[in-house]
Design goal:
Length: about 325
């Protein structure tokens, strides 16, 4: 069998292109899930890319701390928790390390009592004020608790660099290539949210007494946090980036994005060092908090029945 020179060159070029699109040996492919140890959270490999962070002045539900909108480039590969850290994963850390120092400071958590939130010494990460299993996201954990977990995990699997996401990385991961209000589209009337996010809705209003604030215009079947893949993942394969529990990020609190870094790094100089960022909304959140650009913040020692975290590591 003979082969003409042009055909041969086309074959070689196609092979070269195929090799170029393949990840380097040992580097996981975009969209692949990885688990570095038996007790490690499952991570999803994200692509590098750029996006517009924040919101435009005309976005429905916008707050002033979401501007000015600016382009951020994530020029590196990052693996992000497929789910929020679970109670079972946090329990393994506590049981293995004997971690008590930060948890012993107050042993209290802000929980919902009727229509009001109040600090309760009877509640903690093992009892956040609602029923849960080891598969549910851990809540009633402070930013300091999250850092202690990450330090422990890095000792178990050295060299991986586990950490919280920066606020820019979090929004990039949450948007998953979607530039609108939500990762599932603009959804101005918030009627499609119940397929994608666990927030205050018709179910919550029916099952939780005295809820007076607005909910999304649908019923998701869950009044409190859910475990696992109940709702649809976003386009990056990440679950519960909107709703379920707020997620701590690494950055200091900020009144807006003036002077924000554009390379995806955490913004930890200046700002409001007595606060740390939280993102994503929670099971009790009103509709605007489900938007990808929505920003929260709390004191790093704060524990709430709807505040947890998600981990990441560079590749």
């Amino acid at each position: 069998m003979t082969c003409s020179l042009p055909t041969l060159w086309r074959g070689l070029a196609s092979a070269a292109l195929g090799l170029a699109l393949m990840p380097a040996q040992g580097t996981p492919a975009v969209g692949q899930t990885i688990k570095d140890c038996a007790d490690c959270p499952t991570l999803v490999v994200l692509p590098s890319g750029s996006f517009l962070m924040g919101s435009v002045d005309t976005e429905k539900g916008r707050r002033s701390n979401e501007g000015p909108q600016h382009r951020v480039t994530i020029a590196y590969r990052l693996a992000v928790g497929q789910f929020e850290l679970t109670r079972g994963e946090f329990a393994r850390f506590v049981n293995a390390s004997g971690y008590r120092d930060e948890l012993s400071k107050g042993e209290a958590c802000h929980v919902l009592d009727g229509r009001k939130w109040g600090k309760s010494s009877q509640h903690n990460w093992l009892n956040p004020g609602y029923a849960q299993t080891d598969e549910h996201p851990v809540s009633c954990v402070s930013w300091h608790d999250a850092q202690a977990y990450l330090a422990w995990l890095n000792r178990q699997v050295p060299g991986k660099g586990y950490r919280l996401l920066s606020e820019a990385e979090w929004e990039y991961a949450a948007r998953a290539g979607q530039g609108g209000r939500h990762a599932w589209g603009d959804d101005d009337d918030v009627t499609a949210a119940c397929a994608h996010a666990n927030a205050m809705d018709q179910t919550g209003k029916e099952q939780i007494p005295d809820v007076t604030w607005a909910g999304v215009n649908c019923a998701d079947g869950a009044a409190y946090p859910v475990a696992g893949p109940v709702f649809k993942p976003n386009a990056f394969g990440l679950y519960n980036m909107a709703g379920n529990v707020w997620e701590w990020v690494q950055d200091h609190g900020r009144v807006d994005y003036t002077g924000a870094p554009t390379d995806g790094s955490a913004w930890t100089e200046g700002g409001e060092p007595n606060f740390r960022g939280t993102r994503g909304g929670a099971w009790f959140s009103y509709p605007p908090a489900l938007r990808s650009a929505y920003r929260g913040k709390s004191a790093p020692e704060f524990r709430g029945g709807g505040v947890g975290f998600r981990i990441a590591r560079p590749l």
